[in-house]
């Protein structure tokens, strides 16, 4: 990791990249469990690149001798379509484990072709709403033993569920919904014993706020239209009433003058 901007705020994806390096180091025996837990806690509590840098400075990446780096260059803005999210890039994370604990994969991260996760007396969340994808079809393989995993997908993605549950189950509620043209396909598979794997479809918080603002604006426009029509109807009614009153008074005055002329003629 470069040291030219240590005060720059780190993102969730930055922390996940560092956490993945730590998991690899634990699997390779470079860290014992105590060191791994200490560094993992420091990773998820880090707020800046300067705090992330020392955590993996003495660890290699992918067997290479170079120190792991967190990119200081922010990722380009998406073009708004699915094509811009199927990048073919290297995944941010390929697996997750929760043993009497929990894990999360959410925010801007790159989903691999196959993501494996295991939950034992714990739970995990795999959120794909803001994710990029390494391929047009990805597999989320979940093993839940007396635990659970929740997979969150955005609207427009096709979901296929193929998991096996024994005294547990997989949620098939989102199957059968056709995907948007060019959208990735997500296959949820695995095994659940006294546990479960849920699948839900949700919009992002930003999209939810946008839809809420659209509804608020529509209500405001409808209210303004009703007020405008009410003012128009009220003004016409008032003018009509004034006109009718004028006719009433005018007619009465004319009848009074006619009676006065009749009295003069009689005299």
Mean pLDDT: 80
Helical run tally:
4
State the major sheet.
6 strands, parallel
The secondary structure category is alpha/beta
Give the tally of β-strands: 13
Order of SSEs: HHHEEEEEEEEEEEEEH
Strand content: 15-25%
Rg value: 34 Å
* Regions with little confidence, pLDDT below 50 for 5+ residues: 62-77, 236-251
Kindly state the percentage of residues in helix: 25-40%
Separation of termini?
119 Å
Q: Quick one: overall form?
A: globular
Overview of the structural elements:
With 267 residues, this protein is α/β, with parallel strands linked by helices. Helices cover 36% and strands 24% of the residues. It has helices at 12-27, 33-45, 49-52, 205-266; strands at 95-99, 102-105, 110-111, 114-120, 123-127, 132-133, 137-145, 148-153, 158-161, 164-166, 169-170, 185-193, 196-201. α1 packs antiparallel against α2 (33-45). The chain is globular. The N and C termini lie far apart (119 Å). Mean pLDDT is 80; it is low at 62-77 and 236-251.
């Amino acid at each position: 990791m470069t040291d030219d901007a240590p005060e720059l705020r780190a993102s969730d994806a930055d922390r996940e990249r560092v956490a993945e390096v730590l998991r690899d180091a634990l699997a390779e025996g470079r860290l014992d469990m105590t060191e791994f837990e200490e560094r993992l806690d420091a990773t998820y509590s880090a707020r800046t690149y300067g705090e992330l840098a020392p955590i993996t400075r003495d660890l290699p990446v992918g067997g290479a001798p170079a120190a792991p780096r967190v990119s200081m260059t922010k990722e380009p803005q998406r073009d708004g379509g699915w094509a811009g999210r199927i990048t073919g890039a290297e995944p941010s994370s390929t697996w997750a484990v929760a043993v009497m604990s929990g894990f999360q994969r959410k925010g801007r991260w790159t989903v691999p072709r196959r993501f494996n996760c295991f939950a034992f007396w714990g739970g995990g969340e795999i959120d794909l709403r803001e994710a990029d994808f390494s391929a047009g079809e990805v597999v989320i393989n979940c093993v839940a033993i007396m635990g659970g995993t929740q997979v969150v997908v955005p609207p427009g993605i096709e979901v296929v569920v193929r998991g096996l549950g024994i005294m547990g189950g997989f949620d098939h509620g989102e199957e059968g919904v056709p995907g948007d043209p060019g959208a990735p396909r997500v296959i949820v598979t695995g095994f659940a014993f006294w546990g479960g794997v849920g699948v839900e479809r949700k919009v992002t918080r930003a999209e939810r706020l946008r839809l809420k603002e659209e509804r608020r604006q529509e209500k405001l426009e409808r209210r303004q239209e009703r007020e405008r029509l009410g003012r128009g109807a009220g003004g016409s009614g008032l003018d009509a009433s004034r006109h009718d009153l004028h006719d009433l008074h005018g007619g009465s005055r004319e009848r009074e003058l006619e009676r006065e002329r009749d009295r003069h003629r009689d005299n």
